[in-house]
Amino acid sequence: MRKSALFATLWLALASGPACADGGYRLWLRYGATTVPANAVVVQGSSPMLAAAAAELRRGLPVGAGPVLLANAADPRVAALRLPVAGLGDEGYLVRSVTLDGRAVTLVTAKDDRGILYGSFALLRHLDSGGSAAMIDLSSTPTIKLRVLNHWDNLDGRVERGYAGQSIWDWWNLPDDRDPRYFDYARANASIGINGTVLNNVNAKAESLTPRYIAKAAALADMFRPYGIKVYLSARFSAPVELGGLTTANPKDPKVAAWWRAKADEIYREIPDFGGFLVKANSEGQPGPRDYGASHADGANMLAAAVRPHGGIVMWRAFVYADTDPNDRAKQAYDEFKPLDGQFADNVIVQVKNGAIDFQPREPFHPLFGAMPRTPLAIEFQITKEYLGFASHLAYLAPLFSETLDADTRGRGKQVTVAQVVGAHQLSAMAGVANIGSARDWSGTTFNQANWYAFGRLAWDPTLKPETIAREWAAQTFGADPRIVDPVVQMMMKSREAVVDYTGPLGLAHLMATGHHYGPGPWVSELKRPEWNPVYYHRADRGGIGFDRTRTGSNAVAQYSPAIAKLYADPRTTPEAELLWFHHLPWTYRMPSGATLWDAMVAHYDRGVATVGELRREWDALRPLVDDERWTKTAAMLATQEREAIWWRDASLAYWMSLNQLPLPAGARAPAHDLAWYKAQSFPDAPGNP
Ligand code: GCV
């Protein structure tokens, strides 16, 4: 057997079978116990980042592997090989099997140290997902510049919409306690190309900008730096009043601007490569420039001026809506931001959620994508599953992410995808609301780790296919054995659609219970702000269901390009999956299948529940191939999911039937309880509440 084939076989054997238990702590970086000798990895040059890359290879390369050479593309020996490195951009890498001085070597090269770091992880990913050790040829450059996690972590340790324990930042004991977990966090993020992290909640406390907290953030920044990860902070707009004793936070007041400049200088003295600020302003009670009659651009530009001398940026969120605005909530961000196109400083990026409401299991892409050509737009996804079953439902989110990234913003014939809009500017970013917490397995269960992984991989390359990502994640997480990888990928690929089916099919959205957003509450109608009530979104009554966003309704369709607006204006050309997002239709409306809308809805609810039953059976069959700890926890999670999928279906159907007075289609099971029973369920202690 050739050395390379022997090496691959040995690697597969070590990586397959029930891997030793660690409660999921090692994520997808589950290297074997034996490390290669130090001289199996040779580094040309020296820097903390190169040292981190080499250490990772020594930790992760399979026994017998090597030699691996890490060297800059400008190194004379590398240059002499005349490799195709000219096209590599910042952070891009080339990993090649080459012959150097008569010896076979795996070369990891790039134009910068970051590229070498990412190339090293790419090599490990390749080998760990069953790739051959012979004739390696990997090359990639990221298309999105800033690939950033947003932690909604509060300074008291709670995580808003976090379902995996407390915050991983032990704020109290920082900066002294440099928990090794921070180092593993950095490794995991670097392995998927994430290069920034916002440490604190967008519902920010001004205290995070005090010297005490800046020192804590600086300690984290020191640990993350060798892994290419910059630290950012969410900034509370009223901090000049709360911390600086000023009487105003008006962005047009020179004293306010001076306060922020001094604050930025102070931060950069402690964290020289500080990334900048993330701001949630005039949204859900947060302060902002609108409090002073100034625009979002005025507010963002004032902060941008403060960080500009240091090379920092401002990520300014477009997630704004107000109960004082009688317009459709889905239209409000566009109405507020579109007129500001071209008015933002060039170190501001406007951060837009994937859809116009709020991280629902399915939303059409946000109409701002494609509508602000002169402004860099970051896309924000939620990795934590506030509306998709918290940590206890299996919902693989790459299909959701890709659905938005691949959406055409122009309409037939002139395709410009959301991903292309996001990547169109020098400053480009993708943000993901983290699902990371103090839980031993970081994300609540093993399958939730896949969403963190998928976010990073898609931020690096938005054209990657969800199935490809699932396959590489499954192989690294469970071993590159097709007996487990194939069924796991199959489970993942149908999981998100199942959640859509049992929570809100055919374009329904925002049907969850109050506050914690856990479980069904489509009947909720008594909350103070109209747009906090599910009835606002589904508008169901005796006659029909759905939100009319066409010309006869809110006309939100007009915010899309003319070709897309035309498609959405007609229920016959609206994608079935988004039907009730755009149209209010009679329960008896005939679907293309010939079924009535009501019968089709019931079929979706039933399909969702049935799919979760399949997931359980498929996981049961994998018991011999997964270590007990991870298998048992996932089995328990799937049992919860099945019970709750039935709850969602039954509660929703009981409520719809109370309105439409229609019988269930033949063969459909009646809800287990009456509507009053479902309405009486209460979970004030559900996790993740702010
Ligand atoms: C951080 C939703 C969530 C809030 C979150 C908000 C946001 O409304 O429920 O918890 O606040 O989005 O994205 O700012």
What keyword list fits this structure?
single chain; 690 residues; alpha/beta; Chitobiase, domain 2; TIM Barrel; Alpha-d-glucuronidase, C-terminal Domain; 3 domains; 8-stranded parallel barrel; 5-stranded mixed β-sheet; 38% helix; disordered N terminus; binds 4-O-methyl-alpha-D-glucopyranuronic acid
The helix count comes to: 21
Using the coordinates above, name the CATH class of the largest domain. Answer: Alpha Beta
Structural class: alpha/beta
Shape: globular
Query: CATH topology of the largest domain, what is it called?
Result: TIM Barrel
Binned strand content:
5-15%
Name the helicity range: 25-40%
CATH architecture label of the largest domain: Alpha-Beta Barrel
Instruction: Supply the CATH superfamily name of the largest domain.
Output: Glycosidases
* Mean of residue pLDDT values: 95
Any overview of this molecule?
The protein is α/β, with parallel strands linked by helices and 690 residues long. It has three domains: 3-140, 2-Layer Sandwich (Chitobiase, domain 2), CATH 3.30.379.10; 146-478, Alpha-Beta Barrel (TIM Barrel), CATH 3.20.20.80; 501-547 and 584-679, Alpha-glucuronidase, C-terminal domain (Alpha-d-glucuronidase, C-terminal Domain, Alpha-Beta Complex), CATH 3.90.1330. The chain contains 21 helices and 15 strands. The strands form three sheets. The protein has an eight-stranded parallel β-barrel. A five-stranded mixed β-sheet has the order 1-2-4-3-5. It has a two-stranded antiparallel sheet with strand order 14-15. Strand 3 and strand 4 form a beta hairpin. The longest helix has 33 residues, at 628-660. The radius of gyration is 26 Å and the shape is globular. Bound molecules: 4-O-methyl-alpha-D-glucopyranuronic acid. The site of 4-O-methyl-alpha-D-glucopyranuronic acid (GCV) has 11 residues, from loops. Residues 152, 160-161, 202-203, 280, 284, 319, 358, 386, 690 line the site of 4-O-methyl-alpha-D-glucopyranuronic acid.
